[in-house]
Amino acid sequence: MNLPNKITIARVLIIPLFMIFLLAPLPLGDMTILNDTLPTAHFIAALIFIIASMTDWVDGYLARKYNLVTNFGKFLDPLADKLLVTAALVSLVQIGLAPAWIVIVILSREFAVTGIRLVAASEGSVIAASDIAKWKTTVQLIAIILLLLHNIPFTALSIPLADLFLWAALVLTILSGWDYFVKNKHVVLKSK
């Protein structure tokens, strides 16, 4: 068990802590940021999410730099990412900060692409993330962070930045999903 894999496992293990701060009725009160009120627990959840998201970059960087790429890491890293994003998006729906239909579209694409990757892997091929998929992930993470922070400080400026990023994530999700299917239709058609 090398360091990048331990970091990836830590990302999975931090998810319940993130969800406790976001969903449990913790008596932490509210905080005021630029005349906007934010539950302190949501602020802590946002910090946990940011740290967890950064570990994705750290484990990948260390694995490549020190030649520590393993099959276990190739399997667990994208799974950890999907678990973290799924936990965040579903929780945001539960607390009323994200529309369920957008989350359903985003998660459906994640499951579909994972399915294609599993079929390709069973045939000995690896489907790397495309550039548009990398942009999709970045925009998703920014949208989630802004939603966790209740769009503060942009609410004071009357800029719905969290919503704009969520819509951008939706568009990139659809485009990247289409891109995966078009580029890898041979994998799907071959498996019939």
TrEMBL record:
GO terms for biological process: phosphatidylglycerol biosynthetic process. It is a multi-pass membrane protein. Pathway: Lipid metabolism; Phospholipid metabolism; phosphatidylglycerol biosynthesis; phosphatidylglycerol from CDP-diacylglycerol: step 1/2. It is an enzyme of class 2 (transferase). InterPro entries: CDP-alcohol_PTase-I (IPR050324), CDP-OH_P_trans (IPR000462), CDP-OH_PTrfase_TM_dom (IPR043130), CDP_ALCOHOL_P_TRANSF_CS (IPR048254), Phosphatidylglycerol_P_synth (IPR004570). GO terms for cellular component: plasma membrane. Keywords: Cell membrane, Lipid biosynthesis, Lipid metabolism, Membrane, Phospholipid biosynthesis, Phospholipid metabolism, Transferase, Transmembrane, Transmembrane helix. Its EC number is 2.7.8.5. The chain crosses the membrane at residues 12-29, 41-62, 83-105, 141-159, 165-182. It holds the Pfam family CDP-OH_P_transf. It catalyses: a CDP-1,2-diacyl-sn-glycerol + sn-glycerol 3-phosphate = a 1,2-diacyl-sn-glycero-3-phospho-(1'-sn-glycero-3'-phosphate) + CMP + H(+). It is found in: Cell membrane. One of its GO terms (molecular function) is CDP-diacylglycerol-glycerol-3-phosphate 3-phosphatidyltransferase activity. Belongs to the CDP-alcohol phosphatidyltransferase class-I family. NCBIfam families: pgsA. This protein catalyzes the committed step to the synthesis of the acidic phospholipids. This is CDP-diacylglycerol--glycerol-3-phosphate 3-phosphatidyltransferase. It comes from Bacillus taeanensis.
